[in-house]
Specification:
214 residues; mainly alpha
Length: 214
């Protein structure tokens, strides 16, 4: 049962990532869309929609039909792709692909750790959330401080946090697969959590090692 749910989870995660990257790449090569998104309040609105979709899916997914849950996950992936397009403007495509592969490799390693470890990672989730909240606060403060070195340190810490979240989320999905939860709903919420883990690992690694076009 758990292998079936994990397979579904990773398939939907991959579909979500594919939609995000294709959308982002397409927008980055459409000047009109870039102007509409990044030279007005559209970017802020899209970011708020992203946040709203994540919260809505997390809270309501178990009460949705499987098709509704899938539609909202795909919609979230598409909206994320619209804001994601900025990386194709800032960084060289070869660098993006290289970092994508590195992120995928490390993500896989920590996913396997979460799946096979006998250690209960439940407490780890609480500590990771506390650390993430602290990092977010520091990122906000650094917007006003403008320290590149501090930003680099925060990105490194963020990568480590989402390594932990990857292992934690995979183990959590594995544990929930043994409970009386609809497998399609679990696969979507699992895909969403792992999608967020991977995207954050990728973006922070890109900010650390990415080769910009400048």
């Amino acid at each position: 049962m758990e292998n079936k749910i994990m397979s579904k989870t990773f398939i939907w995660m991959f579909i979500g990532l594919l939609i995000t990257f294709i959308t982002g790449y397409g927008v980055a090569h459409n000047e009109t869309m870039l102007i509409n998104i990044f030279t007005s309040s559209t970017y802020i609105i899209l970011s708020l929609i992203e946040l709203g979709l994540v919260i809505f899916l997390s809270v309501r997914v178990r009460k949705m039909s499987k098709n509704t849950a899938r539609i909202f996950f795909l919609l979230y992936s598409f909206v994320s792709g619209l804001t994601f397009s900025s990386i194709f403007i800032v960084y060289k495509l070869t660098s993006i692909i290289f970092i994508f592969l590195i992120a995928a490799t490390v993500f896989l390693v920590f996913g396997l750790i979460g799946f096979f470890t006998k250690i209960d990672l439940t407490r780890l989730g609480t500590y990771l959330m506390m650390a993430l909240f602290a990092v977010i606060v520091c990122f906000i403060i650094n917007i006003f401080v403008g320290s590149n070195n501090f930003d680099l340190v925060l990105s490194v810490i963020s990568v480590l946090i989402f390594f932990g979240f990857t292992a934690y989320d995979v183990q959590k999905i594995k544990q929930l697969s043994n409970e009386n939860i609809d497998e399609d709903a679990l696969a979507i919420i699992g895909a969403l959590n792992l999608y967020l883990d991977y995207i954050n690992i990728f973006l922070h690694l890109l900010s650390i090692f990415g080769d910009s076009k400048d």
